[in-house]
UniProtKB/TrEMBL annotation:
Keyword Hydrolase among record annotations: yes
One Pfam match: NUDIX
Organism this protein belongs to: Kribbella speibonae
Keyword terms: Hydrolase
PROSITE patterns in alphabetical order: NUDIX (PS51462)
Required cofactor(s): Mg(2+)
GO MF annotations in UniProt: hydrolase activity
Residues covered by the Nudix hydrolase domain: 19-159
InterPro entries: NUDIX_hydrolase-like_dom_sf, NUDIX_hydrolase_dom
Lineage: Bacteria, Bacillati, Actinomycetota, Actinomycetes, Propionibacteriales
Protein's recorded name: NUDIX domain-containing protein
CDD domains attached to this UniProt entry: NUDIX_Hydrolase
Length: 159
């Protein structure tokens, strides 16, 4: 997965120190009760489509871009599902990162899913009643996207 130029520029200044980034997650749901998933090239796990917001980019626009870049599916954003601060993490090279993640419910408008970049090994629709092993957070994102309550989920008190 290529590191965006703006991240490389920041890393040249801050080294491996913690970098706060805006992350995006898509729950793309079709009309036949399926969700669009990618099998990640870095760890082989199935996951929701996700990415990093570019500086100055609007979140919904950035997410539509990420979905198309990774899966060749054109989608539209229907609503914001959740806003959350994810736990800090690190990459094998020692870079420390933490994401403020915006999760959106989306629907496809055209295109057949396929691997469309080097970030994924496979892309496909998965029936909601037969999902592969997803992280707890991704399962919660899907549940929240399926909720009839249109209000986004967010934490209201510090832990």
């Amino acid at each position: 997965m290529p590191t965006p130029k703006f991240v490389l520029d920041l890393r040249a200044k801050i080294g491996h120190d913690l970098l706060w980034l805006s992350g995006l997650t898509a729950v793309v749901l079709n009309d036949t009760d399926e969700v669009l998933l990618v099998r990640r090239a870095d760890n082989g796990r199935w996951s929701l489509v996700a990415g990093i917001l570019e500086p100055g980019e609007q979140p919904a626009v950035g997410l539509v871009r990420e979905i198309q870049e990774e899966t060749a599916v054109e989608a539209v954003v229907e609503r914001l599902v959740s806003v959350e601060s994810l736990p800090p993490g690190s990459y094998p090279n020692g870079d420390q990162v933490q994401f403020l993640d915006l999760c959106f419910r989306c629907r496809p408008v055209r295109g057949e899913p396929r691997v469309n970049d080097d970030e994924s090994l496979d892309v496909r629709w998965w029936p909601l009643n037969d999902l592969p092993d997803l992280t707890d957070r991704e399962q919660v994102c899907i549940q929240n996207a399926l909720s009839p309550n249109p209000a986004p989920v967010y934490v209201t008190a510090a832990d």
